[in-house]
Amino acid sequence: MYEIYVHGKPYTECEEYHLKKELIVSGLDNGRGFRNMKDLNDYYLFLDKIYTDMKANGYKTQQELGNNTEDEIGVFISTSGDVIKAEDNMGGSHRFAMARILGIKYIPVIIEGIHNSVFSEYSKNYISNPRSIVKKFIKKLED
């Protein structure tokens, strides 16, 4: 995404495109189920539509798009309390990158996991149920 929307490269010249192209030509698993070059090109055109819409209208939730709400971007909370985008198999890597490029400050995510040390720190300070502890942590992130 950065090569396309920050550096202005055509998608057909990007590293990811070439890697996927090589896998398709070799008949290997390309991670997205593309069967041919048309599938690959259509995917990049689809991503461009998402970027254009996000730029004009902001980030839309999966619910607003009529998709499964479980397809929101997955994140983990690290030992230092940083939010880390989950691996690509959790989905949303391109949307996450687009939001960052566009300077969108808040996006909906699914917290897939919180490092035990962070959770323990918050549970010491707040005698409460786990849901309340997570809400307190999120509130801190928003401040």
Characterise the protein shown here.
The chain is mainly α. It has 6 helices and 3 strands. It has helices spanning 2-5, 15-26, 37-57, 93-101, 116-125, 130-142, and strands at residues 73-77, 83-85, 109-114. Strands 2-1-3 form a 3-stranded mixed beta sheet. α3 packs across α4 (93-101). The longest helix is centred in the first third of the chain and has 21 residues, at 37-57. The model has no long low-confidence stretch (mean pLDDT 85).
In short:
It is built from six helices and three strands; from the N terminus they run αααββαβαα. The protein is mainly alpha-helical.
Ends distance: 29 Å
Strand order of the largest sheet: 2-1-3
Rg measurement, Å? 18 Å
Spatial shape: elongated
Order of helices and strands: HHHEEHEHH
Instruction: Average the pLDDT over all residues and give the rounded result.
Output: 85
Proportion of helical residues: 40-55%
Low-confidence stretches: none
Strand content: 5-15%
Number of extended strands: 3
Q: Can you count the helices? A: 6
Please identify the structural class as seen in this structure.
mainly alpha
Sheet with most strands: 3 strands, mixed
What keyword list fits this structure?
single chain; mainly alpha; 3-stranded mixed sheet
Topology:
Layout: H1 2-5, H2 15-26, H3 37-57, E1 73-77, E2 83-85, H4 93-101, E3 109-114, H5 116-125, H6 130-142
Parallel strand pairs: 1-3
Antiparallel strand pairs: 1-2
Helix pairs in contact: 3-4
